[in-house]
Amino acid sequence: MRQFHGEGFVNQYTADLSSDTAKLVFTSESIENIPSGWRARETYAVFSADEFEELFKLAQPGKDFELYSRVRLKRVP
Question: Using the 8-state DSSP alphabet, how is residue 52 labeled?
């Protein structure tokens, strides 16, 4: 997956394949326009056909991932 941000960052991700079909996890393999060593992770958790959550985590060089943003979206009838 390739992701373009309004701030000028371009993230290229690989999928972390697992048997959990209700969750998609992507970890960056490269990020443009940021100092070397930074990493990003996008997680999409599907709760139903009408609801999912997106977690965006960042890791500074040599550090663990920390939550940067969380968005929960639910379709309104």
Answer: E
Yes or no: say if 54 and 43 are a contact pair by the CB < 8 Å rule.
Answer: yes
How confident is the model over 1-22, as a mean pLDDT?
89
Could you tell me which of 43, 49, 50, 35 has the C-alpha nearest to residue 18?
43
* Closest residue by Cα to residue 26 from 15, 11, 38: 15
- What single DSSP character describes residue 20? -
Q: Which residues contact 7 (CB under 8 A, 6 or more apart)?
A: none
Q: Which amino acid is at 62?
A: G
pTM, entire model: 0.86
φ, ψ dihedrals at 39, nearest 5°: -135, 155
18 pLDDT band (50/70/90 cuts)?
confident
Cβ neighbours for 20, distance < 8 A, ≥ 6 positions apart? none
